[in-house]
Request: fold
Amino acid sequence: MKWILVFLLALSSFSAFAGAKEDFVKAVVDQCKKSADDAEKMATPGRTGTVIQFKLCQSSPVDAGEGCKLTCTKDGSNLGN
Amino acid sequence: MNKKLISTLAVGALVSGVASAQDKLKSLEDRIEALETEKSLSLLKFGGSLRMRYDNIKKEEDNTEDKFNPIRLFFSLDASANVSPKLNFYGRLGSSYVINNMELQNNGQKLPTNASRDHRGPELYLERAFLAYSLLDTVALNAGRLPTIDGPPYEYYDGISRAGSYPALAYDAQLDGFALSYTPIKNKTYELALRGIYAPFYNSAFDVNGDYGAAERGGLTGGDLAEQTPFYTLMTELTVKPAAIIDSFLFVGQYNNFSHLRTNDVIARGTDLRLVASSPSLGGTGIQPGGALNAGLPANTLYLQGSNLDFDWNSAVAAFDFKNVAKTNIDFSFSYAHTTVESRGYIEQNTTINTISGGALAEIGNAIHAGHGILTDKAADKNEGDAYLFTLKYHTPWNHHVGGEYFHGTKYLQLFEQNSDNLTGFYMTRGNAYHAWYTMPFAQDAMRLRIGYTLQDHDYSKGYYGPVTKSELKETTIYSSLRFDF
Reply:
Protein backbone atom coordinates (compact mmCIF):
# COMPACT_ATOMS: atom_id res chain seq x y z
CA MET A 1 0.00 0.00 0.00
CA LYS A 2 2.83 2.34 0.90
CA TRP A 3 4.47 1.79 -2.48
CA ILE A 4 1.19 2.44 -4.26
CA LEU A 5 0.87 5.70 -2.34
CA VAL A 6 4.45 6.68 -3.20
CA PHE A 7 3.80 5.83 -6.85
CA LEU A 8 0.58 7.83 -6.98
CA LEU A 9 2.21 10.75 -5.22
CA ALA A 10 5.06 10.70 -7.72
CA LEU A 11 2.58 10.41 -10.55
CA SER A 12 0.59 13.37 -9.34
CA SER A 13 3.71 15.46 -8.92
CA PHE A 14 5.31 14.70 -12.23
CA SER A 15 2.42 14.01 -14.59
CA ALA A 16 2.98 17.27 -16.45
CA PHE A 17 6.71 16.59 -16.55
CA ALA A 18 6.37 13.02 -17.81
CA GLY A 19 5.53 13.68 -21.48
CA ALA A 20 8.28 16.26 -21.84
CA LYS A 21 10.75 13.95 -20.14
CA GLU A 22 9.87 11.07 -22.45
CA ASP A 23 10.44 13.35 -25.44
CA PHE A 24 13.77 14.43 -24.00
CA VAL A 25 14.93 10.86 -23.31
CA LYS A 26 13.90 9.79 -26.80
CA ALA A 27 15.79 12.70 -28.36
CA VAL A 28 18.95 11.89 -26.37
CA VAL A 29 18.75 8.25 -27.40
CA ASP A 30 18.08 9.08 -31.07
CA GLN A 31 20.40 12.03 -31.56
CA CYS A 32 23.27 11.26 -29.19
CA LYS A 33 23.14 7.47 -29.25
CA LYS A 34 23.03 7.26 -25.46
CA SER A 35 21.31 4.46 -23.58
CA ALA A 36 17.88 5.11 -22.11
CA ASP A 37 19.36 4.83 -18.61
CA ASP A 38 22.01 7.42 -19.37
CA ALA A 39 19.41 9.65 -20.97
CA GLU A 40 17.27 9.40 -17.83
CA LYS A 41 20.21 10.58 -15.75
CA MET A 42 20.72 13.55 -18.06
CA ALA A 43 17.13 14.69 -17.56
CA THR A 44 17.29 17.46 -15.00
CA PRO A 45 14.18 19.11 -13.56
CA GLY A 46 13.23 22.74 -13.12
CA ARG A 47 12.72 25.67 -15.45
CA THR A 48 16.40 25.76 -16.37
CA GLY A 49 16.74 21.97 -16.45
CA THR A 50 17.43 20.05 -19.62
CA VAL A 51 13.88 18.70 -19.99
CA ILE A 52 12.20 22.12 -20.00
CA GLN A 53 14.97 23.68 -22.08
CA PHE A 54 14.42 21.00 -24.69
CA LYS A 55 10.63 21.35 -24.50
CA LEU A 56 10.60 25.15 -24.80
CA CYS A 57 13.34 25.10 -27.44
CA GLN A 58 14.26 28.75 -26.96
CA SER A 59 17.73 28.06 -28.25
CA SER A 60 19.09 25.37 -30.49
CA PRO A 61 21.00 23.20 -30.05
CA VAL A 62 20.15 22.47 -26.41
CA ASP A 63 23.14 21.38 -24.34
CA ALA A 64 21.97 18.22 -22.58
CA GLY A 65 25.35 17.57 -20.97
CA GLU A 66 27.92 14.83 -21.50
CA GLY A 67 28.71 16.22 -24.92
CA CYS A 68 25.17 15.75 -26.15
CA LYS A 69 23.67 18.68 -28.06
CA LEU A 70 20.08 18.29 -29.09
CA THR A 71 18.41 19.83 -32.09
CA CYS A 72 14.90 20.78 -31.10
CA THR A 73 11.77 22.04 -32.83
CA LYS A 74 9.68 24.89 -31.53
CA ASP A 75 5.94 24.26 -31.70
CA GLY A 76 4.15 26.27 -34.33
CA SER A 77 7.26 27.12 -36.32
CA ASN A 78 6.47 25.03 -39.36
CA LEU A 79 3.58 23.75 -41.42
CA GLY A 80 2.38 20.16 -41.27
CA ASN A 81 1.57 18.12 -38.20
CA MET B 1 -3.14 -12.33 28.35
CA ASN B 2 -0.25 -10.37 26.98
CA LYS B 3 -0.40 -12.27 23.70
CA LYS B 4 -4.14 -11.58 23.40
CA LEU B 5 -3.62 -7.91 24.14
CA ILE B 6 -0.80 -7.61 21.64
CA SER B 7 -2.83 -9.41 18.99
CA THR B 8 -5.80 -7.16 19.61
CA LEU B 9 -3.66 -4.04 19.45
CA ALA B 10 -1.94 -5.28 16.29
CA VAL B 11 -5.23 -6.01 14.53
CA GLY B 12 -6.56 -2.66 15.66
CA ALA B 13 -3.49 -0.87 14.37
CA LEU B 14 -3.68 -2.76 11.07
CA VAL B 15 -7.35 -1.92 10.60
CA SER B 16 -6.65 1.65 11.53
CA GLY B 17 -3.67 1.74 9.16
CA VAL B 18 -5.64 0.32 6.26
CA ALA B 19 -8.44 2.80 6.89
CA SER B 20 -5.91 5.61 7.04
CA ALA B 21 -4.26 4.43 3.82
CA GLN B 22 -7.63 4.23 2.11
CA ASP B 23 -8.37 7.80 3.18
CA LYS B 24 -5.03 8.95 1.83
CA LEU B 25 -5.59 7.05 -1.40
CA LYS B 26 -9.03 8.68 -1.81
CA SER B 27 -7.47 12.07 -1.08
CA LEU B 28 -4.77 11.47 -3.68
CA GLU B 29 -7.30 10.34 -6.25
CA ASP B 30 -9.27 13.53 -5.67
CA ARG B 31 -6.15 15.64 -6.02
CA ILE B 32 -5.06 13.87 -9.20
CA GLU B 33 -8.54 14.32 -10.64
CA ALA B 34 -8.43 18.01 -9.73
CA LEU B 35 -5.01 18.34 -11.40
CA GLU B 36 -6.25 16.62 -14.54
CA THR B 37 -9.29 18.87 -14.63
CA GLU B 38 -7.15 21.97 -14.19
CA LYS B 39 -4.79 20.79 -16.91
CA SER B 40 -7.71 20.22 -19.29
CA LEU B 41 -9.10 23.66 -18.53
CA SER B 42 -5.73 25.37 -18.86
CA LEU B 43 -5.57 24.71 -22.55
CA LEU B 44 -3.44 27.65 -23.60
CA LYS B 45 0.29 27.86 -23.07
CA PHE B 46 2.01 31.19 -23.44
CA GLY B 47 5.48 32.34 -24.34
CA GLY B 48 6.97 35.23 -26.18
CA SER B 49 9.85 37.38 -27.17
CA LEU B 50 11.00 40.93 -26.57
CA ARG B 51 13.70 42.55 -28.65
CA MET B 52 15.34 45.96 -28.62
CA ARG B 53 17.45 46.80 -31.63
CA TYR B 54 19.64 49.77 -32.43
CA ASP B 55 20.71 50.48 -36.01
CA ASN B 56 23.30 52.94 -37.21
CA ILE B 57 22.52 53.24 -40.91
CA LYS B 58 24.56 55.19 -43.41
CA LYS B 59 23.66 55.65 -47.08
CA GLU B 60 26.17 57.03 -49.54
CA GLU B 61 25.43 57.96 -53.14
CA ASP B 62 26.58 60.75 -55.46
CA ASN B 63 28.70 62.36 -52.74
CA THR B 64 25.76 62.63 -50.40
CA GLU B 65 25.44 60.83 -47.14
CA ASP B 66 22.33 60.09 -45.13
CA LYS B 67 22.23 58.70 -41.63
CA PHE B 68 19.53 57.17 -39.54
CA ASN B 69 19.87 55.82 -36.02
CA PRO B 70 16.62 54.26 -34.85
CA ILE B 71 16.05 52.17 -31.77
CA ARG B 72 13.22 49.74 -32.35
CA LEU B 73 11.17 47.48 -30.15
CA PHE B 74 9.78 44.14 -31.26
CA PHE B 75 7.36 42.29 -29.05
CA SER B 76 5.54 39.03 -29.66
CA LEU B 77 3.28 36.96 -27.46
CA ASP B 78 2.88 33.33 -28.44
CA ALA B 79 0.01 31.08 -27.46
CA SER B 80 -0.56 27.43 -28.25
CA ALA B 81 -3.29 24.97 -27.43
CA ASN B 82 -3.01 21.23 -27.66
CA VAL B 83 -6.70 20.51 -28.08
CA SER B 84 -6.20 16.84 -28.87
CA PRO B 85 -3.36 14.67 -30.20
CA LYS B 86 -4.59 15.48 -33.69
CA LEU B 87 -5.58 19.10 -33.32
CA ASN B 88 -3.43 22.02 -32.24
CA PHE B 89 -3.63 25.79 -32.37
CA TYR B 90 -0.75 28.24 -32.60
CA GLY B 91 -1.04 31.99 -32.36
CA ARG B 92 1.20 35.03 -32.09
CA LEU B 93 0.43 38.66 -31.44
CA GLY B 94 3.14 41.06 -32.41
CA SER B 95 4.09 44.69 -32.39
CA SER B 96 7.10 46.61 -33.67
CA TYR B 97 7.95 50.29 -33.79
CA VAL B 98 10.60 52.95 -33.52
CA ILE B 99 10.55 53.78 -29.84
CA ASN B 100 8.94 56.99 -28.59
CA ASN B 101 8.35 58.16 -32.15
CA MET B 102 6.90 61.66 -31.85
CA GLU B 103 6.72 61.97 -35.63
CA LEU B 104 3.55 59.91 -35.51
CA GLN B 105 1.55 62.93 -34.36
CA ASN B 106 2.38 64.65 -37.65
CA ASN B 107 0.87 61.77 -39.57
CA GLY B 108 -2.52 62.19 -38.03
CA GLN B 109 -1.84 59.55 -35.44
CA LYS B 110 -1.72 59.80 -31.69
CA LEU B 111 1.37 60.18 -29.60
CA PRO B 112 3.15 56.97 -28.72
CA THR B 113 3.90 58.15 -25.22
CA ASN B 114 0.39 57.54 -23.94
CA ALA B 115 -0.58 54.78 -26.35
CA SER B 116 -2.05 52.34 -23.88
CA ARG B 117 -4.14 55.01 -22.06
CA ASP B 118 -5.37 57.14 -24.90
CA HIS B 119 -8.35 55.03 -25.97
CA ARG B 120 -6.62 54.10 -29.16
CA GLY B 121 -7.83 50.57 -29.35
CA PRO B 122 -5.55 47.58 -29.51
CA GLU B 123 -2.49 47.91 -31.63
CA LEU B 124 -1.12 44.47 -31.31
CA TYR B 125 -1.27 42.72 -34.64
CA LEU B 126 -2.03 39.17 -35.52
CA GLU B 127 1.17 37.63 -36.76
CA ARG B 128 0.15 34.00 -36.59
CA ALA B 129 -3.08 32.18 -35.87
CA PHE B 130 -3.41 28.78 -37.40
CA LEU B 131 -4.65 25.32 -36.68
CA ALA B 132 -2.80 22.09 -37.33
CA TYR B 133 -5.12 19.16 -37.89
CA SER B 134 -3.98 15.63 -38.68
CA LEU B 135 -6.50 14.24 -41.13
CA LEU B 136 -4.52 11.01 -41.41
CA ASP B 137 -1.18 9.87 -40.07
CA THR B 138 0.42 11.17 -43.25
CA VAL B 139 -1.86 14.09 -44.08
CA ALA B 140 -2.19 17.34 -42.19
CA LEU B 141 -4.14 20.51 -42.76
CA ASN B 142 -3.09 23.98 -41.64
CA ALA B 143 -5.45 26.88 -41.93
CA GLY B 144 -5.30 30.46 -40.76
CA ARG B 145 -2.51 33.00 -40.60
CA LEU B 146 0.42 30.75 -41.35
CA PRO B 147 4.05 30.69 -40.11
CA THR B 148 5.42 31.94 -43.41
CA ILE B 149 7.99 34.41 -42.07
CA ASP B 150 11.29 33.97 -40.20
CA GLY B 151 12.17 30.87 -42.22
CA PRO B 152 15.68 29.52 -42.81
CA PRO B 153 18.28 30.87 -42.25
CA TYR B 154 16.66 33.36 -39.81
CA GLU B 155 17.46 31.00 -36.92
CA TYR B 156 21.20 31.41 -37.51
CA TYR B 157 21.42 34.96 -36.21
CA ASP B 158 20.35 34.41 -32.60
CA GLY B 159 21.07 30.70 -32.25
CA ILE B 160 17.46 29.63 -32.01
CA SER B 161 15.60 26.74 -33.57
CA ARG B 162 13.85 26.99 -36.92
CA ALA B 163 11.32 29.79 -36.58
CA GLY B 164 9.33 29.72 -39.82
CA SER B 165 8.31 27.66 -42.77
CA TYR B 166 9.17 29.57 -45.96
CA PRO B 167 12.88 30.05 -46.67
CA ALA B 168 13.89 33.70 -46.43
CA LEU B 169 14.19 34.02 -50.19
CA ALA B 170 10.78 32.47 -50.89
CA TYR B 171 8.25 35.12 -49.96
CA ASP B 172 8.86 37.02 -46.76
CA ALA B 173 5.30 38.02 -45.93
CA GLN B 174 2.66 37.12 -43.37
CA LEU B 175 0.16 35.10 -45.36
CA ASP B 176 -3.31 33.83 -44.57
CA GLY B 177 -4.42 30.66 -46.25
CA PHE B 178 -4.50 26.91 -46.28
CA ALA B 179 -1.73 24.33 -46.38
CA LEU B 180 -2.11 20.65 -47.05
CA SER B 181 0.88 18.48 -46.22
CA TYR B 182 1.51 14.90 -47.21
CA THR B 183 4.30 13.18 -45.31
CA PRO B 184 4.98 9.78 -46.90
CA ILE B 185 8.19 9.26 -44.94
CA LYS B 186 8.56 10.11 -41.28
CA ASN B 187 10.91 8.24 -39.01
CA LYS B 188 13.64 9.18 -36.59
CA THR B 189 16.12 9.73 -39.43
CA TYR B 190 14.15 10.88 -42.44
CA GLU B 191 11.16 13.09 -42.98
CA LEU B 192 9.81 13.97 -46.39
CA ALA B 193 6.88 16.34 -46.72
CA LEU B 194 5.10 17.46 -49.87
CA ARG B 195 2.99 20.53 -49.42
CA GLY B 196 0.53 22.70 -51.28
CA ILE B 197 -0.37 26.15 -49.98
CA TYR B 198 -3.14 28.42 -51.17
CA ALA B 199 -3.00 32.00 -49.91
CA PRO B 200 -5.04 34.21 -52.23
CA PHE B 201 -4.80 37.99 -52.25
CA TYR B 202 -7.99 39.99 -52.14
CA ASN B 203 -8.60 43.52 -53.17
CA SER B 204 -12.12 43.98 -52.05
CA ALA B 205 -13.31 47.09 -50.33
CA PHE B 206 -15.75 45.59 -47.91
CA ASP B 207 -17.58 47.21 -45.05
CA VAL B 208 -19.84 45.71 -42.47
CA ASN B 209 -22.94 47.32 -43.98
CA GLY B 210 -22.57 45.19 -47.03
CA ASP B 211 -21.43 47.95 -49.36
CA TYR B 212 -18.69 46.53 -51.45
CA GLY B 213 -16.44 49.42 -52.20
CA ALA B 214 -19.14 52.05 -52.54
CA ALA B 215 -16.78 54.77 -51.46
CA GLU B 216 -14.14 53.76 -53.94
CA ARG B 217 -16.55 53.85 -56.84
CA GLY B 218 -18.03 57.22 -56.08
CA GLY B 219 -21.33 55.91 -54.80
CA LEU B 220 -21.99 53.71 -57.79
CA THR B 221 -23.36 50.26 -57.31
CA GLY B 222 -23.00 47.18 -59.40
CA GLY B 223 -19.98 45.67 -61.06
CA ASP B 224 -17.53 43.07 -59.93
CA LEU B 225 -15.50 44.28 -56.99
CA ALA B 226 -14.57 41.30 -54.88
CA GLU B 227 -11.53 40.45 -56.87
CA GLN B 228 -9.23 37.64 -55.92
CA THR B 229 -5.69 36.92 -57.00
CA PRO B 230 -4.84 33.27 -56.46
CA PHE B 231 -1.45 32.64 -54.91
CA TYR B 232 -0.22 29.06 -55.05
CA THR B 233 2.84 27.55 -53.43
CA LEU B 234 4.24 24.07 -53.84
CA MET B 235 6.84 22.90 -51.37
CA THR B 236 9.03 19.85 -50.91
CA GLU B 237 10.79 19.50 -47.61
CA LEU B 238 13.34 16.83 -46.74
CA THR B 239 14.86 16.54 -43.27
CA VAL B 240 17.61 14.09 -42.40
CA LYS B 241 18.79 13.77 -38.82
CA PRO B 242 21.13 12.81 -37.49
CA ALA B 243 23.26 12.08 -40.51
CA ALA B 244 26.69 10.51 -40.26
CA ILE B 245 28.66 13.72 -40.54
CA ILE B 246 26.10 16.35 -39.59
CA ASP B 247 23.46 16.82 -36.89
CA SER B 248 20.76 17.59 -39.43
CA PHE B 249 20.22 18.36 -43.07
CA LEU B 250 17.28 20.27 -44.49
CA PHE B 251 16.27 20.84 -48.07
CA VAL B 252 13.34 23.00 -49.05
CA GLY B 253 12.30 23.32 -52.67
CA GLN B 254 9.54 25.83 -53.23
CA TYR B 255 7.63 27.27 -56.17
CA ASN B 256 5.44 30.34 -55.72
CA ASN B 257 3.09 31.83 -58.25
CA PHE B 258 0.49 34.55 -58.45
CA SER B 259 -0.99 36.22 -61.50
CA HIS B 260 -2.74 39.51 -62.16
CA LEU B 261 -2.05 41.15 -58.85
CA ARG B 262 -3.20 44.73 -59.18
CA THR B 263 -1.59 47.48 -57.18
CA ASN B 264 -2.36 50.97 -56.07
CA ASP B 265 -5.85 51.25 -57.44
CA VAL B 266 -7.58 54.39 -56.30
CA ILE B 267 -10.83 53.40 -57.91
CA ALA B 268 -12.43 50.08 -57.36
CA ARG B 269 -11.25 47.00 -59.15
CA GLY B 270 -13.06 46.02 -62.25
CA THR B 271 -14.79 49.36 -62.52
CA ASP B 272 -15.29 50.42 -66.07
CA LEU B 273 -14.34 54.07 -66.15
CA ARG B 274 -17.21 54.67 -68.57
CA LEU B 275 -19.63 53.72 -65.82
CA VAL B 276 -18.28 56.49 -63.67
CA ALA B 277 -18.57 59.00 -66.48
CA SER B 278 -22.04 58.06 -67.55
CA SER B 279 -23.59 57.71 -64.15
CA PRO B 280 -26.45 60.14 -63.65
CA SER B 281 -25.64 60.31 -59.98
CA LEU B 282 -22.39 62.00 -60.80
CA GLY B 283 -23.92 64.78 -62.83
CA GLY B 284 -21.49 64.30 -65.63
CA THR B 285 -18.79 66.71 -64.58
CA GLY B 286 -15.79 66.96 -62.44
CA ILE B 287 -16.12 63.98 -60.17
CA GLN B 288 -12.91 62.29 -59.35
CA PRO B 289 -13.30 59.17 -57.30
CA GLY B 290 -10.41 58.57 -55.00
CA GLY B 291 -8.63 61.88 -55.42
CA ALA B 292 -8.87 65.66 -55.39
CA LEU B 293 -11.09 67.40 -57.92
CA ASN B 294 -9.06 68.56 -60.84
CA ALA B 295 -10.10 72.15 -61.41
CA GLY B 296 -10.01 73.86 -64.74
CA LEU B 297 -11.06 70.96 -66.87
CA PRO B 298 -13.28 71.57 -69.89
CA ALA B 299 -16.99 71.23 -69.35
CA ASN B 300 -18.40 67.75 -69.31
CA THR B 301 -15.01 66.27 -68.65
CA LEU B 302 -13.91 63.87 -65.98
CA TYR B 303 -10.36 63.47 -64.86
CA LEU B 304 -9.66 60.20 -63.19
CA GLN B 305 -6.48 59.15 -61.53
CA GLY B 306 -5.86 55.52 -60.96
CA SER B 307 -3.83 52.54 -61.94
CA ASN B 308 -4.34 49.79 -64.43
CA LEU B 309 -1.17 48.07 -63.34
CA ASP B 310 -1.21 44.39 -62.69
CA PHE B 311 1.57 41.86 -62.68
CA ASP B 312 2.44 38.19 -62.50
CA TRP B 313 5.18 36.97 -60.22
CA ASN B 314 6.66 33.58 -59.66
CA SER B 315 9.75 32.24 -57.99
CA ALA B 316 11.55 28.95 -57.65
CA VAL B 317 13.59 28.56 -54.49
CA ALA B 318 16.01 25.90 -53.30
CA ALA B 319 17.30 26.15 -49.73
CA PHE B 320 19.87 23.81 -48.20
CA ASP B 321 20.78 23.79 -44.54
CA PHE B 322 23.52 21.78 -42.84
CA LYS B 323 23.77 21.85 -39.06
CA ASN B 324 27.03 20.99 -37.30
CA VAL B 325 28.92 20.09 -40.44
CA ALA B 326 31.48 17.33 -39.85
CA LYS B 327 30.87 17.83 -36.13
CA THR B 328 32.84 21.08 -36.24
CA ASN B 329 30.10 23.25 -34.69
CA ILE B 330 29.70 24.95 -38.05
CA ASP B 331 26.28 25.47 -39.60
CA PHE B 332 26.01 26.25 -43.28
CA SER B 333 23.10 27.31 -45.41
CA PHE B 334 22.72 28.08 -49.10
CA SER B 335 19.64 29.43 -50.82
CA TYR B 336 18.96 30.20 -54.45
CA ALA B 337 15.95 31.94 -55.91
CA HIS B 338 14.90 32.64 -59.48
CA THR B 339 12.17 35.22 -59.93
CA THR B 340 10.04 36.25 -62.88
CA VAL B 341 7.95 39.39 -63.12
CA GLU B 342 5.53 40.09 -65.93
CA SER B 343 4.18 43.62 -65.73
CA ARG B 344 1.20 45.08 -67.55
CA GLY B 345 -0.07 48.63 -67.45
CA TYR B 346 0.92 51.65 -65.43
CA ILE B 347 0.58 52.95 -61.97
CA GLU B 348 -0.67 56.53 -61.53
CA GLN B 349 -2.39 56.51 -64.86
CA ASN B 350 -4.30 59.66 -65.60
CA THR B 351 -7.36 59.21 -67.70
CA THR B 352 -9.46 61.95 -69.19
CA ILE B 353 -12.95 61.00 -70.20
CA ASN B 354 -15.00 63.31 -72.34
CA THR B 355 -18.73 63.15 -72.18
CA ILE B 356 -21.59 64.80 -73.97
CA SER B 357 -24.68 66.18 -72.30
CA GLY B 358 -27.02 63.69 -70.78
CA GLY B 359 -24.20 61.52 -69.64
CA ALA B 360 -23.81 59.50 -72.81
CA LEU B 361 -20.22 58.72 -73.51
CA ALA B 362 -18.55 60.29 -76.51
CA GLU B 363 -14.97 59.32 -75.94
CA ILE B 364 -13.16 57.16 -73.54
CA GLY B 365 -10.24 58.91 -72.09
CA ASN B 366 -6.80 59.67 -73.11
CA ALA B 367 -4.57 57.57 -71.00
CA ILE B 368 -1.56 59.49 -69.80
CA HIS B 369 0.75 57.00 -68.26
CA ALA B 370 2.72 59.22 -65.98
CA GLY B 371 3.77 56.33 -63.83
CA HIS B 372 5.50 53.02 -64.22
CA GLY B 373 5.12 49.29 -64.33
CA ILE B 374 6.90 46.78 -62.11
CA LEU B 375 10.65 46.93 -62.91
CA THR B 376 9.88 48.74 -66.17
CA ASP B 377 8.48 51.85 -67.79
CA LYS B 378 6.92 49.87 -70.61
CA ALA B 379 3.27 49.04 -70.97
CA ALA B 380 4.13 45.36 -70.96
CA ASP B 381 7.38 43.75 -69.96
CA LYS B 382 8.81 40.56 -68.56
CA ASN B 383 12.00 40.32 -66.51
CA GLU B 384 13.83 37.57 -64.67
CA GLY B 385 16.34 37.70 -61.85
CA ASP B 386 18.36 35.54 -59.47
CA ALA B 387 19.41 35.61 -55.84
CA TYR B 388 22.10 33.69 -54.00
CA LEU B 389 22.46 33.58 -50.23
CA PHE B 390 25.32 31.89 -48.36
CA THR B 391 25.18 31.80 -44.56
CA LEU B 392 27.82 30.39 -42.26
CA LYS B 393 27.83 30.23 -38.48
CA TYR B 394 30.28 28.90 -35.94
CA HIS B 395 29.08 27.84 -32.51
CA THR B 396 31.97 28.48 -30.13
CA PRO B 397 32.83 26.14 -27.26
CA TRP B 398 31.70 28.88 -24.84
CA ASN B 399 28.24 28.89 -26.47
CA HIS B 400 28.57 32.09 -28.49
CA HIS B 401 27.88 32.36 -32.20
CA VAL B 402 29.85 34.10 -34.89
CA GLY B 403 28.43 34.25 -38.38
CA GLY B 404 28.80 35.64 -41.84
CA GLU B 405 26.52 36.01 -44.80
CA TYR B 406 26.88 36.86 -48.47
CA PHE B 407 23.98 37.81 -50.71
CA HIS B 408 23.98 38.53 -54.41
CA GLY B 409 21.04 39.70 -56.47
CA THR B 410 20.96 40.31 -60.21
CA LYS B 411 19.47 43.29 -62.06
CA TYR B 412 15.88 42.16 -62.32
CA LEU B 413 15.63 40.24 -59.05
CA GLN B 414 12.24 40.81 -57.45
CA LEU B 415 11.88 39.46 -53.94
CA PHE B 416 9.45 40.65 -51.30
CA GLU B 417 11.26 41.18 -48.03
CA GLN B 418 8.70 42.51 -45.61
CA ASN B 419 9.53 41.00 -42.26
CA SER B 420 13.26 40.87 -41.74
CA ASP B 421 14.84 43.00 -39.03
CA ASN B 422 17.00 45.14 -41.27
CA LEU B 423 15.70 48.46 -42.58
CA THR B 424 17.59 48.55 -45.85
CA GLY B 425 16.19 45.60 -47.79
CA PHE B 426 19.30 43.48 -47.36
CA TYR B 427 17.74 40.39 -48.97
CA MET B 428 16.54 42.33 -52.02
CA THR B 429 19.88 43.92 -52.89
CA ARG B 430 20.53 44.07 -56.62
CA GLY B 431 24.26 43.78 -56.18
CA ASN B 432 26.44 42.37 -53.42
CA ALA B 433 25.63 42.38 -49.73
CA TYR B 434 27.60 41.21 -46.73
CA HIS B 435 26.58 40.55 -43.15
CA ALA B 436 28.69 39.62 -40.12
CA TRP B 437 27.50 39.16 -36.57
CA TYR B 438 28.42 37.93 -33.11
CA THR B 439 25.80 36.60 -30.70
CA MET B 440 26.24 36.12 -26.97
CA PRO B 441 23.55 34.12 -25.16
CA PHE B 442 23.32 34.56 -21.41
CA ALA B 443 20.91 34.06 -18.50
CA GLN B 444 20.49 30.36 -19.31
CA ASP B 445 20.10 31.23 -23.01
CA ALA B 446 16.96 33.23 -22.26
CA MET B 447 18.70 36.41 -23.40
CA ARG B 448 20.96 37.15 -26.33
CA LEU B 449 23.03 40.13 -27.29
CA ARG B 450 23.91 40.35 -30.97
CA ILE B 451 26.25 42.83 -32.61
CA GLY B 452 26.34 42.97 -36.36
CA TYR B 453 27.42 44.81 -39.48
CA THR B 454 25.96 44.85 -42.97
CA LEU B 455 27.25 46.34 -46.19
CA GLN B 456 25.13 46.60 -49.32
CA ASP B 457 26.91 47.55 -52.52
CA HIS B 458 24.12 48.16 -55.00
CA ASP B 459 24.71 47.64 -58.70
CA TYR B 460 21.14 48.55 -59.58
CA SER B 461 18.40 50.70 -58.11
CA LYS B 462 16.10 49.59 -55.32
CA GLY B 463 12.34 49.40 -55.46
CA TYR B 464 9.49 47.82 -57.35
CA TYR B 465 8.19 50.54 -59.65
CA GLY B 466 9.81 51.87 -62.76
CA PRO B 467 12.84 50.83 -64.75
CA VAL B 468 15.83 49.33 -62.98
CA THR B 469 18.83 51.61 -63.42
CA LYS B 470 22.50 51.57 -62.55
CA SER B 471 23.24 52.58 -58.98
CA GLU B 472 26.24 53.62 -56.94
CA LEU B 473 24.39 53.41 -53.67
CA LYS B 474 26.23 51.94 -50.69
CA GLU B 475 24.46 51.22 -47.43
CA THR B 476 26.14 50.20 -44.21
CA THR B 477 24.51 49.31 -40.93
CA ILE B 478 26.07 48.68 -37.56
CA TYR B 479 23.52 47.23 -35.19
CA SER B 480 23.06 45.71 -31.79
CA SER B 481 20.10 43.61 -30.73
CA LEU B 482 19.06 42.50 -27.28
CA ARG B 483 16.61 39.63 -27.25
CA PHE B 484 14.70 38.04 -24.40
CA ASP B 485 12.67 34.87 -24.91
CA PHE B 486 10.29 33.72 -22.25
